[in-house]
Design a protein that fits this description.
- The chain is of the alpha+beta class.
- The protein is 30% helix and 25% strand.
- The chain contains 18 helices and 32 strands.
- Strands 1-8-9-10-11-18-15-14-13 form a 9-stranded antiparallel sheet, with helices on one face. A 5-stranded antiparallel sheet has the order 7-6-12-17-16, with no helix packed on it.
- Strand 20 and strand 21 form a beta hairpin.
- Helix 4 packs across helix 18.
- The longest helix is centred in the middle third of the chain and has 21 residues.
- It binds beta-D-glucopyranose.
- Beta-D-glucopyranose binds next to loops.
Length: 692
């Protein structure tokens, strides 16, 4: 069973890709998989979740902190690093069963190896051991320390910084443009370097014999508001504690596949990339690019409610609950957003940060040739986000039976979201409610009317309200919303031969296939949507939209409807978002298109290993890890092929394993107990309690 991602050659063109695929994180801190000698050009970034800053009128984004793992070697005055010369050999690896990163490079003059962790035991902590073996006798010089040469997209985010050294420790205090104090404390043991004031780095020069080894142990911690001391423990002890804590998290959700080694590894790797983002301690959500940098402003999208939540419902229900609590805590922001746009109730941010206010801007996409913004309306028109939050609350309660979330404030969220949809909609002469001027999951078609996904998800909000709220508990004002839900008559999207029209007028647009449409691109990075995009006036869509609706609400549609819609939309979907594949996988399995579903599954599960995803939307860098697609791979396998259904904590399955797979075993967690499920190719399955 392979549980290590290994790359055995050094390729400059893979610097960004490797930064993503070798990422370490613990739900609170993330450290890109970059080499010690790298700086900001190579996108070195230590990221913290949930702390944001805005510099001037630039995009507000999550913070990137100083890098404690900077290290560069010199031999007889010459820099020895992958940046200066081609290494004789090079290996980078990530042990996904332990959450440990390692690097080994061999040059003529020396070899360098390192072991790195971002602690799963104490989430403020990260550490690294660097070892250098001299291969030739001579003078070696090592520069290392807490480097402020870090990658920021829309910075600088520290209005003031102070770096100081006391013996083996360097401390950083930075105050952000928004006035937040951040602290990084790093300790360097093993080399007796001299501290340089100007650079904040240490320099150690020494004569080494051939074969002589030197080692540097680095421990660092990150604190908000108040600095804390480093633990008085050694590197090995802290590394061990992190491994043990990670193994425990993994044990509760591991998956093993017999009969398909590639999928087995890719699913394990996908789980790694989602599991390293969950935070049990804080009420936080998960950003669309996880902790892999500042792409998408470190913001939270519908990715969390639709893709990540169902993973955590099985893997760690406490994290799932936290994801919902985040929306409860940001209800005020959602209400303010609604109000600022002239609506009542709660309109959740399309790109949500700490306060829940909208972080999405109309200049989100740029023209790759002119650099000018391509105006988009995601932040003001993608109203399905509010319905997605309510959908997630409902699914969470159905699966876990945890009604206490309602009292924690989910009841208010449901009510305010319902209020919002009533204020956004209008009633036609026949008494039907419509939603005008919206954007569905298919972002290439903006400002459309009666968008099917949005309309049906909005209707669902009313049903969820009636299911969980009682009119007798409501104030007179709120009872009006209840009554509106009782009698609301939502318009139905148009249908042709059983195919749901994505939005009003969609069927009248030019019907062209994706490959032919692509030929119309002037620049390979041109944005397909917006006012003049190549897809805008055609039926080509960005990602699963009607297909997503059917995959998410399978009980509401017949098999015939599922087949008709899948077949119609499949050839018209560009899959321009990594979220598209898993929805096609889920729906594909349910209509017997297993082979295609398997290909969609692999497209999700291998996404961050292959790194074939778009790096740019227009001129804007959108790279990073894809946690929602990774979680989507898990959904495709566990909820799709295995047919898992969790109802008030009771799991049932309907296994239909992909061809060649003989057995799938997976663990899930319920009330602090871990259960092991084994599913076989003949449709049998068994569930038993298990112990670490
Ligand atoms: C997709 C959205 C998604 C966002 C973040 C966009 O490209 O269209 O649906 O939420 O990326 O992953």
């Amino acid at each position: 069973m392979k549980r290590e991602l290994v790359v055995t050659a050094y390729r400059k063109e893979d610097i960004i890709l490797d930064g993503n695929r070798f990422l370490l994180a613990n739900g609170h801190l993330g450290y890109r998989g970059t080499l010690e000698e790298y700086g900001k050009e190579q996108l070195v970034s230590l990221t913290i979740a949930g702390v944001y800053d805005q510099y001037q009128d630039q995009w507000r984004e999550n913070l990137s902190l100083p890098n404690p793992f900077y290290f560069k070697a010199h031999y007889e005055g010459k820099e020895i690093s992958v940046l200066a010369e081609e290494p004789l050999s090079h290996k980078t690896s990530l042990d996904i069963a332990k959450a440990v990163y390692q690097r080994e490079s061999e040059f003529e003059e020396l070899s360098i190896s390192s072991t790195r962790f971002v602690s799963h035991d104490d989430d403020a902590l990260l550490g690294e051991r660097i070892e250098v073996v001299a291969k030739q006798a001579g003078t070696y010089r090592f520069r290392y320390g807490l480097s402020t040469d870090i990658y920021e997209i829309h910075g600088p985010h520290f209005a003031s910084m102070k770096v100081e050294s006391k013996g083996r420790q360097t401390s950083f205090r930075g105050v952000t443009n928004e006035g937040k104090s951040m602290y990084v404390l790093a300790q360097f043991d093993g080399l007796e370097g001299t501290y340089e004031e100007e650079t904040g780095l240490y320099e150690a020069e020494m004569k080494l014999k051939a074969g002589q080894k030197v080692a540097l142990d680095i421990l660092a911690r990150v604190d908000e508001d108040k600095p804390e001391p480093l633990p008085k423990k050694g590197f090995e002890e802290l590394l061990d504690a992190s491994i043990r804590a990670y193994e425990k998290k993994l044990y509760a959700c591991q998956v093993e596949i017999e009969g398909d080694d590639e999928l087995d590894f890719e699913i394990a790797y996908s789980i790694y990339h989602v599991l390293i983002l969950g935070d049990k301690k804080r009420v936080r959500s998960i950003a669309a690019r996880g902790l892999s940098g500042q792409t998408y402003k470190g913001a939270v999208f519908w990715d969390t409610e639709i893709f990540l939540l169902p993973f955590y419902v099985l893997a760690d229900p406490e994290v799932a609950r936290n994801l919902l609590l985040y929306r409860i805590h940001t209800l005020e922001g959602a209400k303010q957003k609604a109000k600022s746009l002239g609506y009542s109730g709660a309109y959740y941010a399309w790109e949500s940060q700490d306060s829940g206010l909208e972080a999405c801007r109309s200049d989100n996409v740029t023209d790759p040739v002119t650099g000018e913004p391509v105006i988009t309306y995601f932040g003001t028109k993608q109203i399905h986000i509010s319905a997605d939050v309510v959908y997630a609350i409902d699914r969470y309660i159905e699966a876990t039976g945890d009604l206490s979330i309602l009292k924690e404030g989910a009841d208010k969220v449901i009510l305010e979201v319902a209020r919002f949809f009533f204020s956004y909609s209008f009633i036609d002469k026949a008494g039907n409610r419509h939603l005008k001027d919206v954007i569905g999951p298919d972002e290439y078609h903006e400002r459309v009317d009666d968008e099917a996904f949005t309309l049906l998800m909005a209707e669902r909000v009313g049903k969820v309200l009636l299911k969980y709220l009682h009119v007798k508990d409501l104030s007179e004002e709120d009872a009006k919303i209840y009554r509106l839900c009782e009698k609301a008559n939502w318009a139905k999207p148009r249908e042709k031969n059983g195919v749901i029209e994505e939005f009003k007028g969609y069927f009248d647009l030019e019907d062209i296939d994706v490959v032919s449409l692509k030929k119309r691109l002037v620049h390979s990075q041109d944005y397909w949507g917006g006012k003049d995009g190549i897809a805008t006036k055609t039926q080509v869509i960005k990602q699963a939209d009607v297909v997503a609706l059917l995959a998410l609400c399978p009980e509401d549609f017949t098999l015939k409807a599922k087949k008709a819609n899948y077949e119609y939309y499949f050839p018209r979907t560009e899959h321009g978002s990594s979220l598209s594949a898993s929805m096609h996988c889920l729906l594909g399995v349910s209509i017997g298109r297993e082979e295609e579903a398997y290909r969609f599954l692999r497209s999700s599960s291998g996404i961050d290993i292959r790194g074939a995803e778009k790096l740019f939307a227009g001129g804007v860098y959108i790279g990073g890890t894809h946690p929602a697609a990774n979680a989507g791979a898990y959904l495709g396998l566990i909820y799709g092929f295995l047919g898992a259904h969790l109802q008030e904590g009771v799991l049932s399955l309907r296994p239909q394993l992909p061809k060649g797979i003989t057995k799938v075993t997976f663990h899930y967690q319920r009330k602090n107990k871990v259960y092991e499920v084994s599913a076989y190719s003949d449709g049998r399955y068994q569930i038993k309690e298990t112990k670490l």
